[in-house]
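Possible regression after last week's pipeline update?

I re-ran a chain I had predicted before the update to compare outputs. Posting the input and the new output here so someone can diff against the archived version. Not blocking, just want to make sure nothing changed silently.
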Amino acid sequence: MIKAREVRIIDEDKQQLGIFPLDKALMLAREKELDLVEVAPNAEPPVCRLMDYGKFLYELHKKAQEAKRRQKQIHIKEIKFRPKISIHDYSFKLRHIQRFLKEGNKVKLTVMLRGRERARPEMAQEIIERVLEDVRDIGRQDGDARMQGWAVSLLLSPIKSGGKDAKAKNEQRSEEKVQSNSQEKNNSQ
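New output (post-update):
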């Protein structure tokens, strides 16, 4: 509801029409079969725009949907370890952690302690340090390790590597280097 007596009008092509009394502005909007929408109520006089408000809301909704669709979803994957883990099991779980980090997901690393293991949380810390050492190229520690009763947990985040465009540019540059190197070898022979 517009309460001002006079309003500044902007038409559908975003051109200023001038300052009009409110009743004349409403009449102008009805003639063009558009809505009179107040865009800047705090201006002196308030600024109103002639537009199809339903179409405006529809386009706004479509833009929001498009932005949501293009947004990257980051999931948190959890991998559980035990202090007395075999080498094969460790390497198997490590490959999963590396795959999750390369996909851009965060990984929650949980080392479960049972019975007498709870008295020695340094065993869990050793496992965590070993994993951090093995994934330092693709992931980094996100916060400190937390003791949660029977478990020690830590969050790993992927290291950003320049985005999707950087990968394409690097591939192209590497092909150019290979071609230039092979041409140099041919020229020297």
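Follow-up from reviewer: compared with the archived run. Helices lie at 22-31, 53-70, 87-102, 122-134, 163-188. Marking as no regression found.
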